[in-house]
Amino acid sequence: MSKSQVLLTTSDIRYDRRLLRIIKTLSEQDVRIKIYSRKRFADPVSNQFSMDIHWVEPIFSSSILFYAEYNFRLLFKLIFTKYQYVYCSDLDTLLVGKILKLFKNFKLIFDAHEIMEASPEIIDKPTHQNAWKWICKIGLPATDLRVTVSQSLVHYFKRQYQSDFILIRNLPEFRTIVLAERKQKIWYQGMLNKGRGLESMIIAMTQLKDYSLYLAGTGDIVKELKQLALEKRVEDRVVFLGMLTEEELIIRSADAYIAINLLDKESENYYFSLANKTFDYIQAELPAIHMNFPEYKSLLELYKVGELCDDLTPDSIIRAVHKIEQNYSNYCDQCKLAKKELNWEAESAHLKRCFINL
What we know:
Layout: E1 3-8, H1 17-27, E2 31-38, E3 52-56, H2 63-78, E4 85-89, H3 94-103, E5 107-112, H4 126-139, E6 145-148, H5 151-161, E7 166-167, E8 185-189, H6 198-204, E9 212-216, H7 222-231, E10 238-242, H8 246-253, E11 258-261, H9 268-271, H10 276-283, E12 288-291, H11 294-302, E13 306-309, H12 314-326, H13 328-338, H14 344-357
Parallel strand pairs: 1-2, 1-4, 2-3, 4-5, 5-6, 6-7, 8-9, 8-11, 9-10, 11-12, 12-13
């Protein structure tokens, strides 16, 4: 007999590739999954598999009012629903999971993608930080299974909240690719938000005159980045692609030369991160520039798939680009080797075991 599960997320499920992979894996384990998701982007995308999605469209689009309204709507929808498992994607849905467990009998799963209280957007907002810490403190004891995306986050949650987490990394599915002819193209995919080093990258483009910068994604600082490109007179070499599906990302990145994953060290959330784009770049056989943070340093010591950047100054970024240029074919060869190990087919076995044990 199949098991029933509800999955709660404030992201747009159509573009959350970690959750899509998890849903697919659990569906193969005879789990019926009902998804409650926020529809953030109006453009339609095709799903890789059939999903039972219930869209939650709150009145408020941001701030604490958004999270309060979103959790209240989830509570109202789920209090009269039957299920055996609740999967909370990130801290912003854990509170409703905790409240539901006071009234219903189910297994609560918590998937921490980041340190919410340390995100760059609220570093200077102690009230917001304390609210997330409080939710984490009262919510974690109610969970039956806790997973996260990097070993550094495993240690962080153990140290801060005395809770054990299991590592399930954000690895993409293995794919054999046919590379297009490499162009002088620097590639970035992800949110265009504060703390991603994108301002420094645009300034660096004034010196990297042979390259164009392609930004796939959207976010809070799109207007500021476009204005900066105009001010630095590189607007003809900075291309904003907007939100792309996974298939579109694969196609558009196939002819890129170098990828970037730049982050601000002032945020613990970024400092302990292991972004899924890291492994997407490897699967694309695309050498990349990463920050000299614990997870990326460990990864590049094992797999020589790119270069580390010590800070977000344009000069540091330019030096990293030139280092990759000097031994480019070797970085590509290392990506080909690493992608055979760093893929979802291998990582999903851990998730299956966790679910069976649960």
